[in-house]
């Protein structure tokens, strides 16, 4: 693959004679690739910027933030870069733009909307009533000139009475997320005093996203979907949990039992 480089004649970019802030020690010590300055003031090359932003997408993050340190400190810059800026300074190819934009759209939809594909017309549908598994597809209603409801859980045409929040009457219509929460193995948090046994998978108490703890560090984690920090052990949001315990000590409320329902995210 051809290495991407800036055009030295591009007067829209500000070139700087500083190390690449995203990769200050490139493998090729004789690298003469031009560095350009981002809006936050840090220097990048097309290669390093592409690699960093792609790694963020692969981690499920669709906002691009600067990972460099603020000059003279140990604090992260954390400046937010627009996609327009990233696209230009990363010199994204048409294939890369297609990948970036598709991935960003899917990640944003997963965070801000609950969308599934209608089994009738294959159109993405958003569920308005989060307590009802029977969802009417407006596209099918127009095309078929008749009401078409499908099950949000098993994605088959709806059978049985409605509204209903547990299942429809199709065979095998089970909540797989609940099954995983019920059947997951136990784990321990080695660095948290007193937590020798805890379910290995939890549903975020704010949005219901299924999450796991990597068993390192403290008992609190940040949900990748809603960005709310909560205690993996007692399932309280972190500020509430820390009123009666600390990050590395077992919760005063003990280990919360396995969850039997999925919290519904009420977005503000």
Automatic annotation (TrEMBL):
<keyword id="KW-0833">Ubl conjugation pathway</keyword>
<keyword id="KW-0808">Transferase</keyword>
<keyword id="KW-0862">Zinc</keyword>
<dbReference type="GO" id="GO:0016740">
    <property type="term" value="F:transferase activity"/>
</dbReference>
<feature type="domain" description="RING-type">
    <location>
        <begin position="14"/>
        <end position="255"/>
    </location>
</feature>
<dbReference type="InterPro" id="IPR044066">
    <property type="entry name" value="TRIAD_supradom"/>
</dbReference>
<dbReference type="GO" id="GO:0008270">
    <property type="term" value="F:zinc ion binding"/>
</dbReference>
<keyword id="KW-0863">Zinc-finger</keyword>
<dbReference type="Pfam" id="PF22191">
    <property type="entry name" value="IBR_1"/>
</dbReference>
<protein>
    <submittedName>
        <fullName>Probable E3 ubiquitin-protein ligase ARI5</fullName>
    </submittedName>
</protein>
<keyword id="KW-0677">Repeat</keyword>
<keyword id="KW-0479">Metal-binding</keyword>
């Amino acid at each position: 693959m051809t290495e991407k480089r800036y055009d030295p004649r591009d007067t829209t970019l500000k070139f700087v004679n500083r190390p690449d802030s995203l990769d200050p020690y490139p493998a090729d010590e004789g690298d003469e690739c031009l560095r350009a300055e981002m809006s936050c003031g840090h220097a990048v090359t097309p290669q390093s910027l592409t690699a960093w932003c792609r790694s963020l997408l692969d981690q499920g993050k669709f906002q691009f933030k600067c990972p460099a340190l603020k000059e003279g400190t140990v604090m992260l810059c954390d400046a937010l870069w627009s996609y327009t800026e990233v696209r230009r300074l990363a010199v994204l190819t048409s294939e890369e733009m297609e990948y970036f934009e598709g991935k960003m759209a899917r990640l944003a939809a997963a965070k801000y909307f609950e969308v599934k594909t209608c089994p009738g017309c294959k159109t993405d549908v958003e569920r308005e009533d989060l307590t009802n598994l029977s969802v009417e597809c407006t596209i099918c209603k127009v095309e078929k000139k008749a009401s078409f409801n499908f099950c949000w859980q098993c994605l088959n045409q709806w059978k049985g009475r409605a509204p209903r929040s547990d299942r429809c009457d199709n065979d095998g219509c089970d909540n797989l997320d609940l099954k995983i929460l019920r059947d997951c193995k136990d784990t321990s948090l080695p660095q948290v005093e007193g937590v020798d046994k805890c379910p290995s998978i939890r549903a975020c108490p704010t949005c219901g996203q299924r999450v796991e703890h990597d068993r390192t560090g403290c008992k609190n984690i940040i949900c990748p979907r809603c960005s709310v920090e909560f205690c993996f052990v007692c399932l309280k949001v972190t500020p509430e949990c820390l009123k009666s315990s600390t990050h590395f000590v077992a919760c005063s409320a003990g280990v919360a039992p396995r969850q039997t329902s999925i919290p519904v995210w009420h977005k503000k």
